[in-house]
Amino acid sequence: MFLFPKMFKIRQEFSKLRVSDIPATVHDEFVRVGLAGCVQPGMRIAVAAGSRGVANIDVIVGSVVRELKALGTRPYIIPAMGSHGGGTAEGQRNVLKNYGISEETMGVPIYSSMEVVQVGSAPQGFPVYVDKHALEAEGIILINRVKPHTNFKGELGSGLMKMMAIGLGKRQGAEIYHRAMSRFGPLETIRTIASVVLKNCNILLGLGVVENGYDQTAILSALKPEEIPTREPELLQKARELMAKLPFEEIDLLIVDEIGKEISGTGMDSNVIGRVDILPPGESQSPQISRIYVRDLTEKTHGNAVGIGLADLVHRRAVNKIDYKATYINCITSGSLAKCKIPLICETDQEALEIALSVLGIHPLEAVKVVWIKNTLELREMRVSEAFWKEVQNLKHVTALSEPEPIQLNLEGNLL
Fold first, then answer.
1. I want to staple 178 with a disulfide (CB 3.0 to 4.6 A). Which of 37, 143, 235, 335 is the partner?
2. Are 109 and 77 in contact (CB under 8 A)?
């Protein structure tokens, strides 16, 4: 007989700050920073787009392209994404296509290449590389979401500064920079590389994107080149305030339906699950989660299972979908080999949940704190165990949508 805590459904509310008209906001931001005075008709402008699962990325990139065309320039798009897409030019082109960014939808060329050119050297001695197609332009515009990084915490995270390093550096640069990070630290390394790029490349501006907890575009902020190092930390702080989080600090078992690169650079956001590698002195992981069980990979991750090593148990179906080459390239480039380790493999959900309960060893059953989510990006609604019932009643931003009830398994022993 399968014994498991009763579960009930909850909904949490987040800030509703949101950009209602993306094209109009992009236009206003370009006017505010005076882009028209920085370009001339006929100039070739490289628009650098990343791969971090940015909401409305096709609308944002399309709006930037239209603004550049309206100024008489000749824009084109480049993938700025390190080793993603299997570390190949075609793979990165396909990543953009999956986000709705193609030559057909954008009306401009997309130049995808892994070839880079050295533009300088860091004071620490390592070379700094930039995508050759970016350097062929007379100006570069960066577009990236600013959010907490999945490997480290600090005043910088994923964003425009990191895009100048890892994104524009492509696979060759990313491999060198990640090794440098292990020696000099991620913050110093990113700042150093970005300063070399800003000095030696014609960065026109960066468009920072911040999202709210509903995976909606909350802020679009155009930053002049000289503003990027000082203003990006402000956007990062806003991103931390707006991002979706789990509503509980202590969790015994987290069930995750799916992980994937379009959800997070580490498959599931380590900031959400409390498994960030590098923390500031005196700061501990938050939330505290004892065991994590992953049930599947998303279709859009195309077999890239980076981050699966953050889990403790995994369903066989997820393992069967792994593209090991793409996963290994991603992990080797980032230097985080542990993130591609395969956890304990379970043939059914029932087997996984029984193992999790046995190693937790918590009694009575009603006291086990379980949270069941779709993924770490969609956190408005979830199921939680009856141990959270009283806590939910005292949380103003959380509402119980059902009473605790037994979970259902199908004949194969998998969750319905």
1. 335
2. yes
* Same domain? 193 vs 311: no
Shared-domain flag, residues 74 and 137: yes
* Residue whose entry in the numeric block shows the structure tokens 């707006």: 242
What is the pLDDT confidence band of residue 288, given thresholds at 50, 70 and 90? Answer: very high
Task: Among 210, 242, 274, give the residue marking a domain's end.
Answer: 242
* Partners of 76 in beta bridges: 46
pLDDT band at residue 51 using 50, 70 and 90 as cut-offs: low
181 shares a domain with 49: yes
Q: Side by side, which strands form the sheet with 74-79?
A: 74-79, 44-49, 139-145, 203-211, 217-223
**CA geometry: angle 176, 181, 184, nearest 5 deg:** 120
d(CA 354, CA 407): 13
Distance CA 207, CA 219 (A): 10
Radius of gyration of the chain (CA): 22
Range 165-187 average pLDDT: 91
Are 88 and 236 found together in one domain? Answer: yes
For residue 190 the two structure tokens come to: 């990113």
Which residues, in sequence order, are CB contacts of 220 under 8 Å at separation 6+? 19, 22, 25, 26, 29, 60, 207, 208, 209
The letter for the amino acid at 341 is: K
Residue-level pLDDT at 279 = 67
Residue 18's pLDDT is: 97
Separation in Å, CA 81 to CA 86, 170, 232, 322, 384: 11, 6, 19, 20, 36
User: Is residue 253 located within the same domain as residue 394?
Assistant: yes
- Cα angle value 292/287/301 (rounded, 5°): 50
Range of the domain at 61: 33-242
Type and span of the H or E element at 213? none
94 and 233 in a common domain: yes
Give the total number of structural domains in the chain.
Answer: 2
